[in-house]
Amino acid sequence: MIRPSQPLRLRQALVPFICIIALGYFAYHAVYGRHGFISWLDIQNRIDTLEHQLAEVEAKRAQLDRQVALLRPESLDPDLLDERARAALGYANPGEIVIFLDPPAGAARPAR
Q1: What gap in Å lies between CA 33 and CA 47, rounded to an integer?
Q2: Which of 33, 48, 92, 96 could be bridged to 29 by S-S, CB 3.0 to 4.6 A?
Q3: Contact 39, 33 (CB under 8 A)
Q4: Could you state, in order of their start, the residue ranges of all structural domains in the chain?
Q5: Please, which residues have CB within 8 angstroms of residue 84's CB and are 6 or more apart in sequence?
């Protein structure tokens, strides 16, 4: 029986060893690479966060659109106009009672 020499065994083991190294390299980058699985999960989390923010902004815009629609000349709501004018100008009718819930910023409390 003839025994194969040492260099022949190393040469035969070299191809599977190179294949294993290449497979490991591609597997690592498939998980941790720039376009790998971990990056994909991060992108999905970012998409979910941005979709949630988009829904909040769309709801706020819809609310503002409703308020603007009430102030248009063709559909002007007199009560809303009166409320906004009084809030902006700080006026009240002489017979009305005004209750301030929050003191103005920077105002000191009156001394007793």
Answers
A1: 19
A2: 33
A3: yes
A4: 1-32, 35-91
A5: 71
What are 5-56's pLDDT values in tens digits? 567 777 788 889 999 999 999 999 999 999 999 999 999 999 999 999 999 9
For 36, other C-beta atoms within 10 Å of its C-beta total: 14
The CA distance from 22 to 16, in Å, is 10
Cα torsion 62, 71, 87, 82: sign: negative
CA atoms within 13 A on the CB side of 107: 8
Span 95-102, mean pLDDT?
77
